[in-house]
Amino acid sequence: MSEPSTGIDDVAFLTRSPHRVVALEALSDAPQDRDDLRAVTGSSSSTVRRLLREFEDRNWVERTGHHYQATQLGAFVARAMTAVIDRIETERRFREIWEHAPGEDDGFTIDMCIDATVTVAEPTNPYCTIDRFRSLLKAASEFRFVGPQVALVEPCLDELRNHLDDGLDLRVIDQPERAESFLRSHPEYTALLLEGDDPPVLVHDDLPTYGIVISDDRVAICCCDGDTGTVQAVIDTDAPAARQWAESAYERYLHEASPLDLE
């Protein structure tokens, strides 16, 4: 006597072949005939026929004439599978870089990044993180960042200078030694970044190993190697929860920051 099936068995059935979830999603969106399902799944006629029979046995689809459509049960399962797959795909994008990202102790969660753009430095494309940072900078009229972004800023100095001349609202909070080293290496920026009643560059003695960027409509996390300072990845998103987290962290560091004194 066979054991009764479980929810795990149904999940295993759906994930055993990628076309099964695709087919159930399509049937949840609109009625489909067998030709439609062959086209959307890339499967043979016999495979589609067997699949529909399996779906019917589970009461996931119903037939009207030559068309099939998901029942409420089938649509419920399709939504659940789509959500699970989306979450696993999100986890896969972060798997190799998560150790360099903010953690739960910082109030940051992976749920904030489900729809994020994740740019990871690769041996074949080591400058992709710089390119992504540059694109965020170019699109901004307001740009605030906290933490170790020197490796990203230095290759973008020309764009930064042009953007400042065009009225970019800039605020940088960095560690004193890093900010001092940068400005001594680039003295032409000293007047621009340090002078005035409200200088764009402030310093803080206790910053995280990651960077936080806040621009007009996106926030970004710059994931850096704590030992080398190398930028491993840039995670950027327009998710409200991520922005709320970034704004809160930024305001906390801003409140504790002070002007840099090069004397």
What are the main properties of this structure?
Arc Repressor Mutant, subunit A; HVO_A0261-like_N; elongated; alpha+beta; MarR family transcriptional regulator; WH_DNA-bd_sf; 8-stranded mixed beta sheet; 46% helix; 263 residues; Endonuclease, Chain A; 2 domains; 11 helices; single chain
**Order of strands side by side in the largest beta sheet?**
3-9-8-7-4-5-6-10
**How many E-type strands?**
10
Q: Specify the overall morphology.
A: elongated
Number of helices: 11
Chain-averaged pLDDT:
89
Structural class: alpha+beta
**What integer value in Å does the Rg equal?**
26 Å
How many strands, what sense, and barrel or not for the largest sheet?
Answer: 8 strands, mixed
| CATH third-level topology of the largest domain | Endonuclease, Chain A
Low-confidence runs? none
Helix content: 40-55%
Output the helix-strand order: HHHHEEHEHEHHEHHEEEEHE
Query: What count of structural domains?
Result: 2
First-last Cα distance:
85 Å
- Full CATH superfamily name of the largest domain: Endonuclease Chain A
Tell me, what is the CATH class of the largest domain? Alpha Beta
Strand-residue proportion: 15-25%
Assign the CATH architecture of the largest domain.
Answer: 2-Layer Sandwich
Protein name: MarR family transcriptional regulator
Pfam families: FilR1_middle, HVO_A0261_N
Organism: Natronococcus pandeyae
Domain HVO-A0261-like N-terminal: 9-93
List the helices and strands and how they pair.
Elements: H1 7-15, H2 18-29, H3 34-41, H4 45-57, E1 61-64, E2 67-70, H5 72-94, E3 117-120, H6 128-138, E4 142-146, H7 150-153, H8 157-165, E5 169-174, H9 176-185, H10 190-194, E6 201-203, E7 211-214, E8 219-224, E9 231-237, H11 240-256, E10 258-259
Parallel strand pairs: 4-5, 5-6
Antiparallel strand pairs: 1-2, 3-9, 4-7, 6-10, 7-8, 8-9
Helix pairs in contact: 2-5
Domain Methanogenesis regulatory protein FilR1 middle: 126-254
Protein name: MarR family transcriptional regulator
Domain HVO-A0261-like N-terminal: 9-93
